[in-house]
Amino acid sequence: MDTPQTLKIAGELLTGLAKNAAYPEESRLDITLEPRDLQEAVGKLAAARWGYLATITGLDQLAAGQLEILYHFCAGAAILTLRISVPRSPIPTIDSICSVFPYASIYERELGEMLGVIVTHTPNTARLFLADGWPNDVYPLRKDAVLEIRQE
Amino acid sequence: MNTVPERFVVPIGPQHPALKEPGHFEFTVDGEQVTAASVRLGYAHRGIEKATEGRNWVQNLYLLERICGICSHIHATAYCLGVEKLAGVTAPPRAQAIRVVVAELERIHSHLLWLGVAAHEAGFDTLFMYSWRDRETVMDILEALTGNRVNYSANLLGGVKFDMTPELQDMILKGLEFLEQRTHDYVAVVTTDATLLQRTRGVGVTSREQVEELGLIGPTARASGALRDLRVESPYAAYADFPIVPVTATEGDLEARFVVRLKELFESYRLIRLILEKLPEGELQARMPRKIKPAETISRVEAPRGELFYFIKSNGTDQPERIKVRTPTLCNLASVCILAVGSQLADVPMILAGVDPCFSCNDRAVSIHSTKLGEKQWTWAQLRQYGIDYYRR
Amino acid sequence: MDTIRDLVTLFFFPGGLFVLALGMSYEWVDRKLMARVQNRVGPRWFQPFADIAKLLTKEEVIPLDGNGLLFLGLPIVALAGALTSALYVPVAGWHPAYSFQGDLIVALYLLSLLTLCTGLAGANTSDHFSLVGATRTLTQLFSYEAPFLLAMLGPAVMAHTWQINEIIADADGRWMLFLQPIGFIVALIGLLGKLEMSPFNAPEAETEIVAGALTEYSGRGLALFRLGRHVELVIGLTMVAAFYMGGVNGLPMFVLKTLILLLGLVGIQSLVARLRIDQTVGLWWRWGSLLVLAQWLVLVVWEGVQA
């Protein structure tokens, strides 16, 4: 199956849920979702056995006051990106997709540590990357993070 | 009386002979049986993802190349291909071919290194010594090509740094001949040596379904019969012109992972010879703009350990807005904890080595921005002084 | 006069210092041969001496948990056991310094003392690597000990005596290795197990449990354990060579035969991967014991027919 065909199938799977769909490159499909639809969309992909979760990227859209979270799914050369936005303040919260893709846990932990997104229902929230002495309220990948050496 | 049995935890890491890099695993054992496993990363966390946001596109090339010492070229390739895509520039065919040659040489070096490490984990030190000795051949080739044994720095944005002279080609071909002959011996050893087979055959079996469930990639997935090889699925650089024949196995155990990685070496030898024979003529570098208009792209390449995933976002300046790196080990690491449960403690290092973990790759992102000390960068002497003061208290 | 002779025997020759020096020399030969087989340069001749000298000067860290007295005492007992057993075997081709009926059993058990002490030393700390290592050491001890003992008793049965120098006198010139090939192989491989050499080095598998039972040991304690191991290497080689390879009359014969044996050990070591502890136990009880028992059956029947 060629790449545009694969992407088309993914697009059709998610037609009811997509707020917006775009093909930024030949091999890529970006679908914008409401956060509440994420579970359903991911469930549909898993049920259709469409690709695997490559990673989760968090983007800090400081100007818009939003955190954008990108779920990248890959099937062969085709890349499907599910984009959801959550407000930066007071506490950005999304729901875990670990019930569908258990191996998302590692990426969700990274997201929580680096961008301070609270991922509800994720099985494990223990520190994975940052040092034990790292302050709890500093999220290094946020654009306005103040990073300083702590005198312990 | 009702007592809860005490958990007997065998820690592996952060410093442990089984790990060549720092990571921390905790295996709860009942006798010799592993009953639970957990992982903690971050001991080699250097803040590279954050650091890229404060550097320009060219500086980042050298920074990202240093994510990993073993697969540095592939990191640079993924980054270059991504940035070139953003800028709408295509590197000339000769440059793309040279990139692939270096990438395959790096794969040879990485797989031979892995063979040695895995043999050492199995307590087979003779194989370890021999494979590392032979690895020197490919290290010498890489040094002659690029001037470095690690962090080759072969890539430039828009091309490559050096040309392939006839003398270099001769040297590569001679080295490959030796290595090919040695690889035949290694295949014979790992498929027939009785004691090694006791440690590999049927150990850490990963089924085709588990590959899907755990999201495994690279040689680990290919050893379980899943064709996940981006050089075939989504040919980048010169792989479209010089296609590769993927190597897979169906058993999914450690022996299959040995065999898949070794057979991939033959494929690399063949491909390098083919490219050297039909090396396209032409320029080595295309011109790159300094600033790149706002856009996003995803660049995926096949590192020695599996799919390497780069998400790159530009914002119209000469610096990136965000670079996200997902290395293959991160995907495969989840499988270690799951496969380890129920296995023998003695098999754990083997299972761990089976996915060829690279912790430096995993751990990336936090730069030292000091506001209190008023300086952004420290000299070595200052850093040293800080360390001395810190421990004096 | 006798007192002086005894003291010399105990402290200088053939016991004491001489055995220690010999042990370190053989350790060097082992390491050097191993390195050459693996295409490495290997250590220089004084490396084991330097290692021990360095360890002896280092601080000995005594863990807070576990019995400190035991921690200090076990290495001494282990080395003493190994050194004592040297008095009953024909080290360097000389006659055993002391001899009595049944010294074979005593010597073999003095050798096992080292392994036992290693296991106890591991169990005496709360370090998890040590505990797992101790379990493995003792498990392995119980698996190879019986077959190894039976293999060493084979020549004794043929000589109708339990006294080492009588067995050697009986075996002199008769290459038991051809008469009892199974016993010889079991003894040789048992020696690998006793010395915790590959493939039976699961008790100190560095990639799993760091240094096994001796993880907590440093400085003097570690040096003594290692010296004990070196001495055991020499004594093990001496006994197998004397029993199975037609005796060790005189220094040249001793050096030649033990070095040939050591070469065999190095060959096995360098060609195999490490066995898991369950595989080790399985191997010994499924094959080692059965084979050596079969050999015993043949021996007993043969002796019966002769008598």
From the 3D coordinates, which CATH architecture of the domain at 3-89 in chain A would you assign?
Answer: 2-Layer Sandwich
* N/C terminus separation of chain A: 57 Å
Instruction: Report the strand count of chain A.
Output: 7
What name goes with the CATH superfamily of the domain at 3-89 in chain A?
A: NADH:ubiquinone oxidoreductase Nqo5 subunit
The strands making up the biggest β-sheet of chain A line up spatially as 1-2-5-4-3
In terms of per-residue confidence, which ranges of chain C show pLDDT below 50 for 5 or more consecutive residues?
none
Overall shape of chain C: globular
Average pLDDT figure of chain C: 83
Give the helices and strands of chain A as they follow along the chain.
HEEHEEEEHE
Whole-number mean pLDDT of chain A? 82
Secondary-structure content class of chain C: mainly alpha
Q: CATH topology of the domain at 3-89 in chain A, what is it called?
A: Beta Polymerase, domain 2
Q: Evaluate the radius of gyration of chain A.
A: 16 Å
Apparent shape of chain A: globular
Total beta strands of chain C: 0
Order of helices and strands of chain C: HHHHHHHHHHHHH
How many domains, in number, for the residues of chain C?
1
Describe the structure.
The complex is a heterotrimer of chains A (152), B (393) and C (307). Chain A has three helices and seven strands, in the order αββαββββαβ. By secondary structure, chain A is an alpha/beta fold. Chain A has a domain at 3-89: Beta Polymerase, domain 2, CATH 3.30.460.80. The N and C termini of chain A lie far apart (57 Å). With 393 residues, chain B is of the alpha+beta class. Chain B has a domain at 49-323: Orthogonal Bundle (Cytochrome-c3 Hydrogenase, chain B). Chain B has 15 helices and nine strands. In chain B, α4 (93-121) runs antiparallel to α11 (254-277). Chain B is globular and about 60 Å long. The model of chain B is unreliable at 364-379 (pLDDT under 50). Chain C has helices at residues 2-11, 16-37, 47-57, 68-85, 103-123, 128-159, 164-171, 176-179, 181-194, 206-209, 219-244, 251-271, 277-306. The N and C termini of chain C lie far apart (45 Å). The model of chain C has no long low-confidence stretch (mean pLDDT 83). Helices cover 72% and strands 0% of the residues of chain C. At the A-B interface, β3, β4 and α3 of A face β3, α8, β7, β8 and β9 of B.
